[in-house]
């Protein structure tokens, strides 16, 4: 009876090539980059450019995509809160005017995105 290897105990799968078994080990992969969202990707670019050592450390320990997803969620929550608050304070003069409401919503989004970029995305987390 053979004893299990450490990889087998951890549930790592193997692939056989020419009679040799190789463990299938990945770092979390670049395929997850699409799952982190708009603000998560922006934050990853910021961290990579401004704090390259921190970026490499997070990649090495598999924390980058988890943190980027968290940043994306926080950013969208803040964005929605700021937009709703701004729209509550700035009512349209003509309630049935599509153009006026569109302009108010666009202005609210621009203000909210500026705050989100400054307070969440372009920050060291």
UniProtKB/TrEMBL annotation:
Domain of life: Bacteria
Cited InterPro entries: TnpV (IPR026989)
Protein's name in the database: TnpV protein
Organism: Lachnospira intestinalis
